[in-house]
Amino acid sequence: MTGLGTFGPSFKAGGNILPSIFVKISTTADDTVLACVAGDDPFGISQEGVDQPPGVAGSDGNAGRAGENMKVYGPGSQCLITLGTGGCARGDYLKPDAAGNGVTASTAADKYGAQALEIGAAGEKILVVVIKGKI
After folding, report:
1. Contacts of 51 (CB under 8 A, 6+ apart)
2. How confident is the model at residue 57 (pLDDT cuts 50, 70, 90)?
3. Which of 11, 12, 19, 129 keeps 20 to 30 A from 64, CA to CA?
4. For residues 1 and 113, what is the distance between their CA atoms, to the nearest angstrom?
């Protein structure tokens, strides 16, 4: 691992990863994370900011691109996550949807990666604590 920072461990992106979404550990490359999809076991949440500021040539809105370093908020961290369909209530456990956004975990098989500290609607970013578990 490249080391612990203020926000948590720094990892390499295994592909394009948007800000404030669930990420998982890559099973094929060391120190690498990938964007989560529905059903994945989330490890943490990607950094809130983009890698390149808007307006800079090549800026694409990603937090990280394949092979580049990025911050990842791990268990116990507080950070923002983008909410998916349905939003959430304060206290809800959140799991990744198809885009890695947080949606409410509700069935016995759901693996969650965060607990909501705020209420929010789809598309909003809310404060969560990164916590792993299974409903």
Report:
1. 62, 63, 64, 65, 68, 70
2. confident
3. 129
4. 21
Confirm if 135 and 115 have CB atoms less than 8 A apart: no
- Residue bearing tokens 């507080």: 78
H or E, element range at 54: none
Q: How far is residue 130's CA from residue 96's CA, in Å, rounded to a whole number?
A: 12
Percent of the chain with pLDDT over 70: 93
> pTM for the complete prediction?
0.90
Q: If pLDDT is split at 50, 70 and 90, which confidence band does 5 have?
A: very low
Nearest to residue 66, comparing CAs of 54, 81, 51?
A: 51
Q: What is the reported pLDDT for 114?
A: 98
Q: Are strands 78-82 and 69-73 parallel, antiparallel or unpaired?
A: unpaired
Nearest to 63 by CA among 76, 82, 49: 49
pLDDT band per the 50, 70, 90 thresholds, residue 9:
low
